[in-house]
């Protein structure tokens, strides 16, 4: 038996970034093309192609059953039309894998949906530990004025299914309406 060596990764609490990440993923608007509900606003903002979010993976070692992956996600504040910046969103390729999201700073929502289109939205500010149960697709949305940062801990073999979200979209979206955040039906959702 060979044992994996224990290790520690340090998170800079001010920035939300791991000091020595295994991998950094950056997602600009062009990586999320077609996902926002207001296509015209999306096309016009694509000229600037803003950075929407970054993922700092603390652990990207092996993806064997039994291991845990963990990362922070930093979603920058902003909107496409009236819809707040969000992550692509995914189901886990192994659908029965759950996940924990812990908010470090900022404000946003963990938006979830079942394959049948049932929706659930958990409000998150610093200290919130929100649970993604097995089989729920999940996306996070920054509804605040500053960067929204959360730590995610997940079974390393969970994997990612982005295809279903890219095809159907999310059933609900978070928009700003008269200065207020509202959860509304997504006109582009294909059930
Ligand atoms: C998270 C997400 C991260 C970025 O670590 O991967 O927030 O979101 P997308 O993967 O949808 O681009 C997670 O849920 N891992 O399973
Ligand atoms: Zn996940």
Task: Reconstruct the topology from this structure.
Elements: E1 11-12, E2 17-18, E3 23-28, H1 39-45, E4 51-57, E5 68-75, E6 79-80, E7 83-84, E8 99-105, E9 107-113, E10 119-125, E11 129-132, E12 137-142, E13 148-155, H2 163-168, E14 172-177, E15 180-185
The protein binds 5-phospho-D-arabinohydroxamic acid (PAN) and zinc ion.
Please identify the structural class as seen in this structure.
Answer: mainly beta
For the biggest β-sheet, the strand order reads 3-4-5-13-8-11
Number of strands: 15
- In the CATH hierarchy, the third-tier topology is known as Jelly Rolls
Radius of gyration: 16 Å
Tally the helices.
Answer: 2
The CATH class is: Mainly Beta
Shape: globular
- Give the % helix: under 10%
The CATH architecture would be: Sandwich
Mean pLDDT across residues: 96
Largest sheet: 6 strands, antiparallel
Please indicate the count of domains: 1
Ligand set: 5-phospho-D-arabinohydroxamic acid, zinc ion
């Amino acid at each position: 038996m060979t044992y994996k060596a224990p290790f520690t990764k340090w998170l800079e609490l001010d920035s939300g970034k791991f000091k020595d990440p295994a991998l950094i993923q950056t997602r600009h608007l062009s990586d999320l093309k077609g996902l926002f509900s207001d296509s015209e606003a999306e096309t016009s903002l694509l000229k600037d192609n803003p950075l929407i979010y970054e993922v700092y993976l603390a652990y990207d070692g092996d993806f064997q059953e039994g291991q845990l992956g963990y990362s922070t996600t930093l979603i920058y504040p902003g909107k496409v039309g009236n819809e707040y910046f969000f992550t692509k969103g995914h189901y886990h390729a192994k659908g029965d894998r759950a996940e924990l999201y812990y908010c470090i700073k900022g404000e946003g929502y963990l938006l979830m949906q079942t394959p049948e289109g049932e929706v659930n939205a958990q409000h998150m500010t610093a200290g919130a530990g929100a649970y993604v149960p097995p089989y729920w697709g999940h996306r996070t949305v920054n509804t605040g004025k500053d960067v929204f940062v959360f730590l995610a801990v997940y079974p390393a073999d969970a994997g990612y299914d982005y295809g279903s979200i890219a095809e159907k979209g999310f059933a609900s979206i978070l928009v700003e309406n008269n200065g207020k955040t509202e959860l509304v039906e997504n006109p582009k959702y294909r059930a």
